[in-house]
Queue: 2 jobs
Job 1
Amino acid sequence: MRIIALANQKGGVGKTTSTVNLAAILAARGKKVILIDLDPQAHLTTFLGIIPEQGMLSSYEVLTRSEPMANALMDVRENIKLLCSGLDLAAAEQELVSVVGRETILRDAIANYDQPVDYIFIDCPPSLGMLTLNALGAARELFIPLQPQFLSLQGLSQLLESILLVHKRINPELMVTGLFFCMFDQRLSLSSEIVGDIEEFFAQQRDADCPWKNITLFKTRIRCNVKLAESPSYGQTIIEYEKNCNGAFDYNALADEIMMMVGEMPPKTELPSEIAPEKSAEQPVDSPVVEAADASKEAVDLEIQAPQLIRRPVEVVINDSVKPSVESTDNI
Ligand SMILES: Nc1ncnc2c1ncn2[C@@H]1O[C@H](COP(=O)(O)OP(=O)(O)OP(=O)(O)O)[C@@H](O)[C@H]1O
Ligand SMILES: [Mg+2]
């Protein structure tokens, strides 16, 4: 069973869109999937056509009322069960403050679920509060969806600081295993530059003792695609709404990569003929990345080196003195 959190405290980067569409594609391939909506905005829940109502068991009851996950899961599609977000979920942040072991409640709830499941995806809110901490406490893998923008880099270093703390204090099993770009526009040179900085940064970290040393920078880039933006308003996943569009194609390609990273063989996809492979997001954009990554190999040390574009470098030492410098990590 893979337990994957999709997290990025920056809002609107594609966390929910990716969670729901990856789940839909994997479920269509026969995988048993559980989706956990940990966002009080309940976008994942509404994306799947469910409106949170009073009295509905949700992630709130699982986190704050010891409700077994099995009681709260609902069948939303073939092979997909949803732990929906509740109306009160925002209050959980406060309610959990005085609870001992508050960061591992979700982990325990998942451990007590005894039905067969292949993939659990956890959709996080755009913050680094207690809900995201519970996701990071429960997950074994973290995927970071990122938009190729300058401010994303700053957010990334803040996210990595939190992950380091969680890895050290709450969940040593947590590894950052994947990063992919969403709403990617390869006509913009800034996109290529940001991709280059990210690749260079993670290349430097390969030999460091950190939870992202084996990260996969997925080749698939999720392109801007209006169908992806339209489908939630119909309560449909992209393969229900329009399976012959670039959005569906990109998420299929990403699902292939996600399966292959653990040695699973994705099915041969029957790609629609009008989407030619050369237009696909599988082709990385040209960038000066490779040279830069090679040149930086000797720069590996025990400190996290923020990508060049980040003006406020992260000051975290991996081995011993991890100093939380982010207010929102005070909970850890
Ligand atoms: N590839 C894409 N092309 C076009 N629109 C997209 C794409 N991906 C997501 N969107 C749209 O962008 C908006 C933000 O996406 P999404 O809700 O998935 O982000 P998020 O990171 O979950 O946001 P939040 O941080 O608020 O939870 C949504 O309206 C979504 O429909
Ligand atoms: Mg979301």
Note: The chain is about 35% helix and 15% strand.
Job 2
Amino acid sequence: MSESNCDHDIDLEKLVRGQYEAENRPSENEVGGRVPDFGYNVLNREGLLYEPIVDREHLSSGGEKPNWPNDADFAVCLTHDVDEVSLYSARQEVRNTVSKIRHRRSTGQAMKDLIKGGMRTIRKTRKRQDPIHCYERWLEAEEKVDAKSTFFFMPEQTNKPHETDSDYRFSDTVIFDGEQYTVAEMIREIDARGWEIGLHPTWNTYDDVEELKFQKGQLEDVVGHKIVSVRQHYLHYDVTKTPRVHAKAGFKYDSTLGFNDNIGFRFGTSYPWNIYDLENNEKLQILEIPLIIQDGAMLRSNRGLRLNEELAYDYMLRLIENVREVGGVLTLLWHPSYIHKEPWWRLFSKTLNYLSEQDIWIGSLQDIGSKWSNKTPLRNIP
Ligand SMILES: [Zn+2]
């Protein structure tokens, strides 16, 4: 691929294959057991995080813009990671505390966790109306603009526990559409209404096919059909291992490759691509639909960009324009567990309204993925 007309030294083929990431990302142990984020990305160091440089190069070297239905300018993929189902569940708080204590090495710290967990449980049982028990609001907002998203749910069991695992069970109860449902019933209802259910697997699945299959099977038992889409919890993903694990577990679409603390194009592209297996030097049959913007990266107050609502909207408009210019896919993630935070919900509604006035094609991960695979000729990148 030609590097002409570019004012950077990035090898785009190497970028999309994940080789820069494999070379530059430190191990979790080197960054305190956390997921390394945008600071280690080669594009950030070059000041190119918000630029879809791969897509621009594709177009400037004679490649065609992707074809979207109705000749839309670009596509929007809407997603939600369901990390928690309730804010005020005492049962979930007890499970959460037990899990934390199990992962503590010191007895002193375990005691502190136990006391804190006990206090939280007492506070939570006093509350009545759970402010995130209004999942129907996401469906209603999306239905108004003729959109259906992907909801990524976590499994309820794991053989390889980690302190970030979910604390909900499929038998827990929630209020949905004004009525009491179990989580399993709500998942089936969302599925039956035509939204997509994807898997949000736990931290320790990123390198373990059997564990990932085990978790996928749990959600498939709930919905009664195959699950094809995945996004790793905490975006915990190793580019040298996870693509192969996803493919072997039978997924077709992944949308993990974005950032927790920033927004932008982690691999320099808004176009879906067949992810590369670096060990076996081959393209896999799993399509990566990269995550471009998530709510928490912009709006959390203690990490990430820490933007206010207005500035977050300005950042988003800039990325929307960049995706429009290349006719790519703008993948958005909004967490249902933050619906009680008004600026977060307002930003979602405002963005959805703005997008609905543009010439877009909007859908779930599966919608976008199947359209891309069937109708758009795959680029010669990588
Ligand atoms: Zn998550």
Note: Residues 88-129 form one domain.
